[in-house]
Amino acid sequence: MFGLEIVVILGVTIFVGTGLAHSLRVAPPVIRLIGGVLLGFVPVLREVSLPPEVVLFLFLPALLFWESLTTSLREIRANFRGIVMTSTLLVVATAGVVAVIAHALGMPWGPAWVLGAALAPTDATAVGALTRSLPRRNVTLLRAESLINDGTALVIYGIAVTFTLGEEAITTAHISWLVLLAYGGGILIGSALAWLVLKTRSRLDHPVQETVLSILTPFLGYLLAEMIEASGVLAVVTAGLIMSQAAPRRARAGTRRQSDGFWSLATYLLNASLFVLVGLELQAAIRALEAPLVIRGLLLIALVSVALIVVRIVFLFTSTQLIRLLDRRPAQRLRRMSYRARIVSGLCGFRGAVSLAAALGVPLLLSSGEPFPERDMLVFVTAGVIVVTIVVQGILLPLVLRWAALARDTAIEQEKLLAQRTAAEEVLMDIDRLAAQLNTEAPVTERLRQEYATHLRVLDAGAGLVEAEEELRHHQQYTALRLAVLENKRATMVRLRNEEHIDDTVLRQLQSTMDAEELRLAPEDLTE
Predict the structure, then answer these.
(1) I need a labelling partner for 215 at 20 to 30 A (CA). Which of 2, 56, 374, 457 fits?
(2) pTM metric for this prediction
């Protein structure tokens, strides 16, 4: 019964937290994390813990898969060099600085490097949830970095844990093999899995079956990679990126609508639950420490949190200057960011679930049977830094954005208009050929031609390309009238159902058609 209570408590916290976030104009993850911390004061919830296996094998594959499906591969290719540097060199530098700070405060080198590796990677879900107001290029760089850097951090983490346990010697050849296996194996498995899934989907003709295959993909990729000790993260991300390019050509409308609906809701709930559970875990971490060690832990949290920001900003400025020194091509100059934009990116290094899962996954005992040194401190500091980066940096980010005064990103609107105009123009060019192929009668062809001609004029008027205020006004009135007519139809059908003239099944089928038309006329924004 306690499991059901947890589900209800999580649901209520997410529901109330989302409402508060919109009312207070604060990022929802901040409120959810604070809500999780407050829930830790409830005595019955003190037994709740977040097993690392749940994060790594349930939350992480699904969240990473959706992030990779919705990330721009074009922007990744255009910024590939910078993404590789931040997901490898920055991770190593961050882990090293955190390890030095932890060692200076009395932590042995082995556990210090474990802490550094756990806190080195940024979190894809936190970055995705907290950076929606940034320009597209900044968001893509941050999301791509957080999708890839887990692989580097987990290699460092594995080496640090192995060194501390004293199970085997750490050599250059051994480290090189781990890196090659993690990256090469993860990418290879992800590519092969994407090819297999796409081939299988091309032979299916059932939306539910195709959606089930889509759900299975990230978990299968993660499992296969972990079985050979490769990077499950890179396997999932690679599969997602490949499928994001191929799916628009091959997926059917029904499958796409059902799959997108599932993933949007499922990842929203997983993401929201994860922030609440991370906040709850902080309470457990505090109770696991003896009182004198809490002060030392708080000092570590403060120093490490500041160091993560400083190292990140210094790296972004240093790497930028290095690239400018080595690459003076005109194309490179066009992609330069302002120093304010780099400071904003420096503040967006949010930590999250992967860091906590790594800390919780530290073994309890050494090979000798003794307790793993500083394990409780590792969990406490990691949980505390996650809370600081999300709550403090999440609250500061809007203020820094106002200071930065970044130019509004209109690329999405411009490219959307380009796609719609080009498609409408080509339809008008090809409509006679298509009509001839289908033996369509002239009145029907002319009717569709007029609809697309009107659509093209409305697009041009909305973009200010032509003076057509009357056309635009008529389109707005037409849309409003269509929506009112749909509402009238919906009320009529509900009345017929209530009077038992039609069955509920009939009503649901008709409502589905009307809902699709309503969304076409007035698309809803389903983001947080």
Answers:
(1) 2
(2) 0.82
